[in-house]
Amino acid sequence: MGVGGEKFQLGTVGALSLSVVSSVSIVICNKALMSSLGFNFATTLTSWHLLVTFCSLHVALWMKFFEHKPFDSRTVMGFGVLNGISIGLLNLSLGFNSVGFYQMTKLAIIPCTVILETLFFRKKFSRSIQMSLSVLLLGVGVATVTDLQLNAVGSILSLLAIITTCIAQIMTNTIQKKFKVSSTQLLYQSCPYQSLTLFLIGPFLDGFLTNQNVFAFNYTSQVVFFIVLSCLISVSVNFSTFLVIGKTSPVTYQVLGHLKTCLVLTFGYVLLHDPFSWRNILGILIAVVGMVLYSYFCTVETQQKNTEVSPQQVKESEAAPLISDSLSKVENGGGVVDDEPLKVPMWSSKYSRE
What we know:
- It contains 13 helices and no strands.
- By secondary structure, the chain is mainly alpha-helical.
- It has a domain at about 10-125 and about 150-245.
- The chain is globular and about 60 Å long.
């Protein structure tokens, strides 16, 4: 493997590790904030997360840690607003549905992403990859899904949340490649729109779901401490999310997300003594098997493609396994030649007009 491949491997593993550690940390922090201290304003808190992330990136830009690269403003604004709306819809889905149905909503994001990428980007997922994803979803479902209470409003909100989340994550990957921007540059430009969207709808949404006013809450020193800690951790969470999707693919990011779910369940039992059953253990073990199979098949099929295409073409592939030594080509089925026209999503206003 060349120097470029080794650098990519280290960068991908580092991004995956950062995403797991920061995400599990913020879940534990937010659980203490919401469950123990009663601060249940999730959407408003997320808007503060994004505001702190933007301020941190602005300081990093001022210190010249990265270069500002403006591009199509309408695409950035649409992307930022869509991300904010998807977060709000997920919170609404949790408010109108049982926890079990909400977990099913999260599980549905992977097959929905696969369908969208197949339809609009002509990506191909091998039977081995489909099988490993099915094993993963089965395991997470066994571990997390309990009661399934259906209602019309909750089902509609869940469907909208799934669609907007899938599109937003696909856009995260697509925009970075089409406009040749880094995850940091995209996050810096989209953060204000995401934060503003959630800051405007957050107090109303949280008030509707909790019957409390976020501005009238009793902000003790302990609450403020955990809010500040949560916001600081969120900088790493937001950065690693864009980094992972940019280096791998939306599907791989969702696989990683379910790994985080399993870790949160485990840490919750070990550290917080949450209830834990044999069903949880069995589900986590099945999910881990699915993750290992997904990474293994991606790696094997990538190595097979490496013998058929040039190193430059492999480098330009658009997907990667959970742990891999090069960009996986499993999800887009075949090489990308230099003179092939870029496939631009239908939501990109700049390119759709052309």
